[in-house]
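Technical annex, item 7. During the second reporting period the consortium partners agreed on a shared format for inverse folding records so that results from different sites could be compared directly. Each record opens with the tokenized structure and is followed by the designed sequence. A conforming record, contributed by the partner at site C, is shown below for reference.
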């Protein structure tokens, strides 16, 4: 099998690789350079089969790094992202394993960071729901959420309560909406009731 053309794609670092005048696929510059491939080279089928696998692994890993350099992701989120980009499962598995070894994917660190950022603005129930959606394990979420005190939860609830009641009249209808609104945010009945009482007292 003969390499008949190596054609650069735009201004990036990827190339079309043509073998026997047919496009074998899109190759990363690093992979081509690693094997010092040039037009006119004769190589066997096994070499090209292995090259496709190697290129897939390299491209999948590099794409993962580019994403993680911009924003933290859980393992589930990264796997979903790479699947959407049509990378084979074997490439995704290798990339994820390597990234976990390097510490680029760490669901515990993600969970702790998420709780630190959200602990002052969301209920624990809301945080847990969002983390479960992102693929973090239930036990890990509970472990990290233990660091948020009950008093912190009450204070967050009170902030939502004060915001909701701003410029509203105090009546039965408003109270019902108040309870429904805070319950939808994930706060428990006890904290909502306490927040209501504090808002009422502040008005007197």
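Designed sequence (site C submission):
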């Amino acid at each position: 099998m003969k390499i008949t053309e190596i054609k650069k794609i735009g201004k990036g670092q990827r190339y079309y690789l043509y073998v026997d005048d047919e496009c074998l696929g899109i190759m990363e510059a690093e992979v081509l350079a690693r094997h010092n491939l040039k037009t006119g080279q004769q190589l066997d089928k096994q070499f090209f089969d292995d090259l496709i696998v190697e290129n897939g692994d390299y491209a999948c890993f590099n794409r993962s790094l580019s994403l993680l350099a911009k924003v933290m992701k859980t393992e589930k989120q990264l796997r979903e992202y790479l699947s959407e980009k049509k990378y084979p499962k074997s490439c995704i598995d290798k990339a994820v394993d390597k990234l976990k070894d390097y510490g680029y994917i760490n669901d515990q660190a993600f969970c702790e960071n998420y709780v630190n950022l959200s602990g002052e603005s969301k209920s624990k129930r809301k945080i847990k729901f969002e983390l479960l959606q992102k693929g973090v394990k239930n036990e890990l979420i509970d472990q990290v959420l233990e660091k948020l005190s009950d008093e912190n939860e009450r204070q967050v609830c009170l902030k939502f309560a004060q915001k909701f009641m701003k410029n509203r009249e105090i009546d039965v209808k408003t109270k019902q909406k108040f309870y429904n609104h805070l319950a939808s945010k994930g706060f428990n009945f006890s904290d909502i009731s306490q927040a209501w009482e504090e808002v009422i007292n502040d008005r007197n």
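Residues 107-145 form one domain. The mean pLDDT is 91. All partners now use this format for quarterly exchanges.
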